[in-house]
Structure formats: structure tokens, C-alpha cells
Write the C-alpha cells for this entry.
Amino acid sequence: MTKEINNEEEAMEQTDSKISSIHAPSELNGIDQVPPDTDPTTSIEKEWGCSWCDASFDTLKSLSGHVLGKSRHDTIHDYQEFREHYADELKIAPKTKKKAKAVSGSTVVRLKPIETEFLPDEEQEISELKRETAILKERLAQKNISDRLGVPEREQESQRAFFEEERQREDILKAKDREIENLHKRMEDELKRNHEKELAQIRSSHKTDIELIKIQQDFKLEMQKLKTEITKDVSDFKTEMDRTMVKGVNTFVDLIVEDFRDKKAARKQTAEQRQQLRESVTSTGDQGILAILERDSPQIIKES
């Protein structure tokens, strides 16, 4: 990071030198001479020019090719102040301001730094990434717990019902595919019959071979168009079915997770109630119930 800052500082110093040689008055040749009129509020032109040096609006626009040249030019004044202010955080020694070298026929202008505030745009993105990471970790932890505990009988029934529903969907999809294939075959047969009728009419009326070739080409084009339309319809139907299946899987997973949480809460509540009962029996001295609780307590704790 220090290397990048040093590179930026060198680039700023080079730009500073170029700006000083461009917008300084040509009749002043001394070093560190400041033009007498440096008040940014003395004229309308100053309001659109640099607020800290003698660079006019036209000069700034010529440097950047755009009206935003003013903000880019102000960065030169801001950079040294920023480096000195954040020297401790960046773990670098603040550099002293260097005087720009005098250029023949020009004036070197002293640039006044201003305070600026840098708001990183990456904070929101980092916050979103952390939130998504936490959600993924929680889902992974829940999955690992479910794998260790196994699938209860009620969840097995839900799974069987879900897969039975999926099998029915597949059967419907296959039936639709067969229906489309049969329709395609019937249409092809109809086209062939029509084509044969047309050929028979051509032969009976002694049409030329050129007309026959044209009819054959038209038939091929019609067949190709029909196949394209049928293929598109089948693709759209399969895409819709896949989308429906994915939605059903997500809903099923959510139901499993919710059911697991409910069971875990119920087991925990049962363990707490039995613990309270055990403490009550211990205080009263009922040895029979106390023995039963002593026997069942390890299993209750394990389930919770």
C-alpha cells in the first residue's frame, strides 16, 4: 500500500509541475511568486476556476478536456494534506512539501492544501459479503446437525410424498412428450399425403419438372419450419417443468429445516421440565421417582 501511495505522490508532483508551468503568468519569472489576486470570490471566473491557485476555468478544462477538470485539479491540493493527516494509519512518514522547479518564462505557484474526507465505497459491499457468509455458515451447520441426527420417520414420510409427487410430474412430462411426438408424426403424415396428392395432380396434368422441384423445396422448407416450432415448444415446456421442480425442492428443504427446529425446541423443553421435576423430587425425598429420573436423564440430555 505504501508503494502505491508513493507512486500516486510522484504522479501528483509531476502534474503539479505541469500545471504550474501552464497556468502561471509568463511575465513573472521568479520562484515562489504568488499572483496578487488569489481570492476565489473576486470574480465569476474565479468561482469556476481553482479555489487555491490562479488556474482559470478554461485552463482546468483544457487540462482535462471536461468541466470535471476542476475537481481533478483540486486533488493536487488535497493530496499532501491527506498524506500528512493519515500518516499514523498508513505507517509512513509525512513528506515535506517540495518546491516545484522553476521553468523558464513561467512562475511557480504555491498550492494551498484543503481538508478532504474520503468515504470508501467498498464498505457496503464488504458488509453484504459478511452477511451472506454468515447465512451460508448457518445453513451448513444446520445440515451437519441433520446428518448426525438422521432422518426421523415423519420426515421420511414427507420425503416419500415429495418423491411420489416428483414421479407424477415426470409421468406427466413424459405423457406430454409422447403427445407432442404423436402430433408431430400426424402432421408429417398429413403433409406427406398432401404432397403425394399434389404430385399426383402434377403427373396427371403433365406439369413441368421445374414446378415439381419447386413444390418439393417448398415442402422441405415447411417441414423444417414445423420442426423448429415443435422443438421450441418442447424446450419451453421442459424449462417450465424444471423451474417448477426446483421451486418444489426449495420448499421441501425449508419444511425439513423448520420441522427440525421445532423438534429440537420440544426436546429441550422436555429436558428442562424433567430436570425441574428431578430437583423437586430430590427436595421431597421420593426415592422411586428419583430413581426413574436418574435412569432416564442421560438419554434426555443426549436427545436435547
User: Anything to note?
Assistant: The chain has three domains: 2-90, 122-149, 151-260. The chain has nine helices and no strands. The CA atoms of residues 2 and 92 lie 7 Å apart. Residues 151-260 form one domain.
